[in-house]
Structures are given as C-alpha cells and as structure tokens.
What we know:
Elements: H1 10-49, H2 55-81, H3 98-107, H4 109-165, H5 171-182, H6 189-209, H7 214-271, H8 276-307, E1 316-318, H9 320-339, E2 342-346, E3 354-356, H10 358-374, E4 381-387, E5 393-400, H11 422-428, H12 434-444, E6 448-454, E7 458-466, H13 470-474
Parallel strand pairs: 2-4
Antiparallel strand pairs: 1-3, 4-5, 5-7, 6-7
Helix pairs in contact: 1-2, 1-4, 1-6, 2-4, 2-6, 4-6, 7-8, 9-10, 10-12
Amino acid sequence: MYHMPQQLQPSQKRRRSQTGINVGYLLLSFPLGIAYFILLVVGIGFTVLDLLLIGIPLLIFIMALLWKIAAFERQLAMNWLGVEIAPMAAPFPADAGRIQRALIHLKRTVTWKSLFYLFLKFPFGITAFCLTIVCLCFCLVLSIVASVLGLLAAPFVYLYMVVASSSPLDGRSVGRYIKATLTLGGGIVFPLIIMDFLAALWGQFAQAMLGMNQNALRLAEATAIAERERQKAEQAEQSRRELIMNVSHDLRTPVASIRGHLESLLLSSEEQTLQPAMLRDYLRIAHRETLRLGTLVEDLLSLARNDSQELRLQIGIVDARQVVEEVYQVMMPLARRERQISLVRAVPPQLPAIYADRQRLIQVMLNLVRNAVTYTPDGGIVAISLQQTEAQYLTLSVSDTGIGIAAQDLPHIFERFYRTDSSRTRSSGGFGLGLAIVQDFVQAMGGTISVESTPNVGSTFHLHLKVAHETTNRS
C-alpha cells in the first residue's frame, strides 16, 4: 500500500484544522459569555424595575433579542464545532398576531432552554478560556523543553544510531526522531485532545439546548403538513365558489338571450306578424347561443376531467402537417363568411412527426384559431405556421393582426375565467376557459405554450411539441 510519509493524510489535515477551530471557539467563548451574562442581568433588572410602566414591551424586546442571540450561537456551533442542530422552533401560524406569537414563544421549551444555555455560556467561557490558555502554555513549554533536549542529545543519538545500525541513516528515520523529540514522545498531543474533548462536549450540549427534540420536531412537521393541507382545502373551496359564480354568470347571458328570442317568436306566431327574415334572425341567434352553451359545457367537462386526473390522452406519432391542413379546411370558410378574415397557412414540405394526441391537438388548434378570428377586426389576417426551431421540438404557431394583449394581462391569460375585457368577451362568446384548457392539453402532451403580443398589432401563440424520432417510429 502506498503511504504518504512526508505529507499529512487528508483525515489528519481535517483533524488538525478542526482542532485549531475548536481552540478558537473556546477562546471566543470567554468574551461572548461575559456579554451574554451582562445582557441577561441588565435586561432582567430593567424589566423588574419598570414592570408597572413599560415592563411588558421591554420584556418582549429582550426576549426577542435573546432569541436572536441564541440563533447566532446555534449557527456558530454548527459552523465551528461541526454539529448538526435541529431547527429552534416551527414557524408561527400565518394568522397569529403579536400577542399570540409572544404567548406561543413563551410556551416553547426551547425558549427557556436557550436562555439557560446563554446563562451557562458565562461559566463555560471562563472555564474554557482558562483551560485553553493552560493547555497552550503547557504545549509551548513542552515544545521549548523538547527542542532544547533534542538539540543537546542529537549528536549522541545520531552516533548511537549509526553504530547500532551499521548503515547510513535515511531521511525517514531522522524525521521520525525529530518529530518524536519536538513533541516529547507525543506528550504534546494530550492537551490538544483535552481541548477537542471540551469543544465536542459543549457541541453536544448546544445540540440538546438550541434545537427542538425529536418529538417536537415530528409534531412541527405534522403541523406543517396539516397547515399545507388546510390551505389546499381552502384554495379548493375558494376555487369551487369562484367556479360556481363564474359559470352562473356566464350561463345567464346566453340563457336570457335564448329565452328572449323564443318569447318573441311565440308572441309573433300568436299575432301572425312574423316575417321570414325576422324568423331566420331569431333562429340564427338562438342557434348561436346554444352553440355557446355547448362550448361552455364541453370546456367545463374537460377541466373537470383534468382536475380529477381522468383526462386520458392517446399519445402517438402525429403528422403535424395533416393537423394544420384539417384545421385550415374547417376554419377557412367560417373566418371568411363571418368576419371577412383571410386564413392562411405556411407549412414546409419536409418536417418530422411529433408526439401528441391527434384529437386533442386539433381541439387546441381550433381553439387558438377561433380566438384569433374573434379578436381580429374585419378584413384582418390569421396565419397558421409550422416549423422546426429546435432538434427536439416542432413549433406550431397561430398569428393574427388583431387587437393584441396588454403587457399586464399576458401573465394571466392562461388562468381560468380570466378575461382581459369582460364586456367584449361576453358579447363575442368567450368564457375565459379556452386558453386554460389549451395549456392543460399541451402540457399533458409533454409540450409547452408561449405567447407574444403587441396591443393594436397582433398576437402569436407558439406550441412547442416533442419530435418523434425515426428510431422510435420503427420500434
């Protein structure tokens, strides 16, 4: 086995480095102990003296200051002595006031343990300082004596070693002799061991006094888990209430419209004054509103399935060009007939396939194109493009020359029931669910969605979906 005779092993270096840090900690304990003792005595004295006037505020201030000092001591022990100490206490409840926090703080066991620790820091600091000085002086005197004796006896020892071995001495033998002489046979190590033992003993004491015990730690973890679950339940309840309010509000408009036009139809039929053109208009409006209701129901069903983890996707290899062509053929006549909008497409001939659920991807693209048509003025342009921007992803983009999205609205457009202009979207058929569903579907297919928009210029939505490699296709 290879040895390192002239260099310290890594473990020896760490031990000697830790010994130096321990010596520094023991020496530093003396001034810190004095400062803590003075603070405790003065603080308690002032609190008792002014108890009738400002004692309680002063007590709270002193307790908070001592808690900060205890936290500093905990960090000092962890960094210098190398001990692992549990957290001092669990976080306060979010809805707790100052008085409640003060009462909770006073009930904690670690609060009083940390005060006891700071009080004992004074006698420990004196003891550690004196013992460390004695040990260091002993080491110094021992080193001087060993050096003098070694220098005086060196010629005789060297002569004896040469005669006894009948061979010239090597450097290793001489090094061992010098090391044994300077440390006086290793006796200088014992004071260092004593200081290491004292530092380790105080580190264990700090570990017991400045951190929660295992029972309190487990209780704090269980409380934190219960608090997170409570917050989740409150958020779920709040989301449920908002869902009911939003759905009720969104259902009111189309239902009222259908009811009003049907009542007009009934009244006109009774009076026999209904013209064919008016009948066609009433039926067209009623049909449009029923389509809006159907869209809302489908969107809510999709969200419910996604929330209950019942959304099942059939991920496979899909030709994105065919998807673009199908969406183009469906939406092109509608865009031209309803809004006089030109729908165009740009698809390169050679592109790899992607991983996706074909039907869901078509639903996503139809939703984006429908939104682009809705928010583009008459005579505008909506473009569908397809390109490979990265080796692993294919990008489907839907661009328009519409009203755009304000910068403050961009971070929220994928939130459920979020609408940038409620009055406009209600009249144009939007419920604030389409983009939320688009994002859920895209993420479920392993892709991402991003948006770029400039007010009064237009918007572009990018779908980034994973490329299906040829090796995977063959398998």
